[in-house]
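Lecture 7 notes: from sequence to structure.

We start with a single chain of 153 residues. Read the sequence below before looking at the structure.
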Amino acid sequence: MASIQTKTYHAKPADIERSWYIVDATGQTVGRLASRVAHVLRGKHKPQFTPSIDTGDFVVIVNADKAIFTGNKLEQKIYYRASIRPGNLKRMDAKTMLVKHPVRVLEEAVTGMLPHNTLGRAQARKLHVYAGAEHPHAAQRPQSLNVETLQVG
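Now the structure, written as tokens:
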């Protein structure tokens, strides 16, 4: 009896079609929003998802300054950054960070949920975050993305 071999589909970079999506962060929880945006950036919402190939889409997040934290994270969550210089470790709590650098809050949350390798850095470059409602990507005609259900509409 001959066995039937099934071929596994492996996406090729030339076959990938990328879309542009826009997400409004107003009233969204930072962690939940970041995990769903990372899902789209990786391309896991597409049937041709391949873990070793960047199959994801571009995502524009607007109103990053209106994202929220739940629980006591505003006071307890600490963001660190440092250079290689001794004694240069800077720390900032989430409340201050959300006021001073709202874009960085969402960028760090999303990039932390992507792979920590060359592929993850390439996927992170497709993320564009803006503090206000204005963005320069109108020419790409981004579709609105409902992150609660991950549906375009």
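DSSP finds five helices and seven strands in the chain. Keep this in mind for problem set 3.
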